[in-house]
């Protein structure tokens, strides 16, 4: 299954929702279209990087793998991508991030009040996308099931984000707490993408649960690789500065793993992270501490465990075919991705 | 129908949703409970003013007036109130308001990042409330209809908020634009409250539409009276400073009416509003200009027109009974309310 025509169809599905018949509201939708990579900051058409669209693609592919017709899942795929982008618009404000995908963020251009409201609007369009499932012949109870999965997921996103923000002021975060947080912030929406795709492809509840497990484990592995790239990623490929997560003193898994060892490395790292800011020499020092603790190997091993579980969940579905093979391939490629 | 036991039932319905089994998430729900008036800023139980709960009460009353059982509408009433409060939490950030109902706003205590996220969480709980309609025996298609009304309404809230924020930088706002803005920001949720109550009370689509019209006109009148109270309200009753909307140079309807007359009054007002800030003498001057233009009488007359239309819409439903009489009473009392 070629992803290009399908991702184009997802863009069209989203685009149909981002339309205003009132000229006075065009800038409101224009800010959303800017964020999605369709317009530039002067609200003129542009082809910009709007993200990888991993989640809608997983949704469509899972629908096919479970035996369904991806046409029927298109509104759900659009809803998932709009939900994801709502959370990015708000996260950028909450994390004080001025840049995303090499462009200024919505709040950096239009201010915090408009950006909060633009995010809220995009969340509502995500909800309105779901109603289009009914037009494609999905039964009302199934639409409600999908809506409920997305509602639960979005609440988990907010719970994860609450923890992430409150972690900024703490140094004593346990690995368990961290895993719970990334479960909410990252894995839950990837799990929902697979679960929703499956629920629109089959009536077999056990199979839907297995695809959900697949998505969850995939999401955990995805975030752990993200943590690795935030420290050891190639700046030329990631588009971020080298060791960007250390520079911003983010307490990601490699850091927490090293802190939790309770040895000289941990104490040295704790002292460095207690300073108000880090310079280049500090960053080199942190990298050396992580190296000595074996943090990269530990986090990579964890990501491999989750990928293994994802593949096992896929096997439990009992399905075979090209789409299923593509899902397996995605799970493997997530481990080796460079950006 | 006595509103006290019913509003208590709405609080219970909301409360059941604001529960976390994870102790680490208690502060997340605590911030929501603070906003709703159930906890103080130390997250200890308190009985505080959490608002008038006008919208859920309208929903339940309309359900009864249309011939339905209000028990079944409770989850929808809770969803409406949670949606309203989501919008207040975000509005307070967007309007830079540090106080609401004599208490500090969520962002003023916990900061903007947490407050954005707490609002997002409350919006999601509003969605999750709707799913409880199914447990009360409401058919799936009816639940979807209610969800769609709320989704459309919330998008209109965001559209109205977009206009409201962008109006801050403009002096040339037409009365037509202003009415469109308050339609989105104020009338649409009151219209939805009545429409949803009716939709859960009857299958008669024409009757549901008439109750919606009632709510819409009521909402327009409500906002116009709000505009009057923001300028001429009694500070001892409203809890705001005298002429608070003039002090903050809000361009509400009495101001726009006076500006639109194109006479000496308009030009004087325009000059005053062009200044970077207003002192007491300026406020007195603005009040005198509004008086000379007859702004109070004009806005009151407009509110009366909308109230008349609300009563006419009620009559179109063809329903009679105590609940219907209470709805009529609410429409009349909105015109004379002092806060």
Global geometry of chain A? globular
Oligomeric status: homodimer
Q: Quick one: which chains have the greatest interface?
A: A-B, 44 and 44 residues
> Largest sheet of chain A, described in full?
2 strands, antiparallel
Strand count of chain A: 2
Structural class of chain A: mainly alpha
The main sheet of chain A orders its strands as 1-2
CATH top-level class of the largest domain in chain A: Mainly Alpha
Mean pLDDT of chain A, to the nearest integer, reads 95
> Roughly what percent helix of chain A?
over 70%
> CATH homologous superfamily of the largest domain in chain A?
Farnesyl Diphosphate Synthase
Low-confidence stretches of chain A: none
What is the tally of helical segments of chain A? 16
Instruction: Compute the number of structural domains of chain A.
Output: 2
Q: What is the CA–CA distance across the termini of chain A?
A: 23 Å
What does the radius of gyration of chain A come to? 21 Å
